[in-house]
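User: Structure please.
Assistant: Input sequence and predicted structure:
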Amino acid sequence: MLNRFKRYAAVLLAALFIVFTAAASVEVYASAGELEDSLRVAIENMDETLTVYIEDADFDLDKFVEEFDFAGVSKWELTSARSQRDIRIIWEFEYGEVYAIRKAIENPSFEAKLSPRQAKVLSECRAFVKKNIPDKLTDYEKEKLIHDYLCINVRFDEEAEEKRLSGIVSEDITPYTAYGALFNGTAVCEGYANAAWLLLTLSGVENYIVHSDTHAWNLVKLGSRYCHLDVTWDSSETDLIGTIQYTYFNLTDEQMTRYPQHRPVNIGLPPADSESYNMYFNRGMRAKDLNDVKRIVTAACETGDRSISLWVDDHLTFDYDWQRDLQFVWDLRPGGQYVESFMFVEPGPDRDTLTIILE
C-alpha cells in the first residue's frame, strides 16, 4: 500500500510541477509506468521541451513511442542517453494548428505559446469575423457565408496533392493549414477544413473536423442537428463551373458516406440525419425523376437564371442519358432569349447534383 501511495504521489507531483511551471522547458523524474502521464501533461500544457529521467535503464523506448498517441503534436523529436541506472529522454514538440488555436481560444493564456503563424491566423480571423459575420445572423447564415468565402477565395493545391499521392514527404505543411488557405489562397482538404473550423468556431458555430483515410471536411451543428460540410469539393466544383456550388453543403451521414472518400475514421461523432439545411431541398431544387428535372430547369429559366443546379434523387438507379434527356433545354427562353449553347455537369458516383450553364 505504501509503495502504491508513493507511486501515486510521484505522478501527482510531476503533473503539478508541469502545470505550475511557466517555462516552456520542463524536467521530471518518473518511473517507466509514469512516463505516459508526464508526457500527456506536457502536451496538454503545450510545453516546448520535456526532459524525463526514467529509473529503468532497460526501458523499451522504441515500443513506447510506437504505441503512444501524440494527438495535438504536429512534429516531435527526441534524444536519449542511457546510463547504468537510468535513461534520460528529451522531447521537443511543435503543436498542430487546430490543437494550439483551440487551446488559445479556450484559454487566452495559451496565446503566448502559439507560433507566429498560428497567432497571425487567429488574430486575422477574429478581425474577419468581427467585420463580416454579425452575431444577429443564424448559424446557417454564418455557415453559408463562410462556405461561400472559402469557395471563392481558396483554390485546391494540386501540386501538394500530387506530392502526397506520390508518397513525397514535404517539409512545407502550409497547404495543410488554415494559414495556407487564408493567406496563400491555396490548400488541400485539411487546410480547407481547418480554415472552416476556425471561422465557424470564432463565429460561435459548433463544428468538428472529420477525417477519412484520405480526406478531411467538417461536421457542423445547426440548431440541434448536425450536417456534413465539404468546402474542398464545393470549391473545386465552383472553379470548374464558375458559380458557387453546394453539392456537399449540409449532407446527412447516408448522403455523405455513399462517396468512398467520405467514410469517417473519427470515433464518437454525433449523427448527421437531418435534411432540413440542404440548400437544394429548401429551395425546391430536388428532382425525383426526369419530369421533375424538366419542371425545375424550366421554372428557373423563366426567372432568367442561366446557371442552374439541382439535386437528382434517382440518378444512381435510373439509366439517364443526359445528352439526350436535356434536349428540351434548346426550347427554353431564359430572359426571352434563345439558348445558343449550353454545357452541363452531370450527377455521378461522387455527386448528386446536375448543373446546367446556358449561353
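The mean pLDDT is 89.
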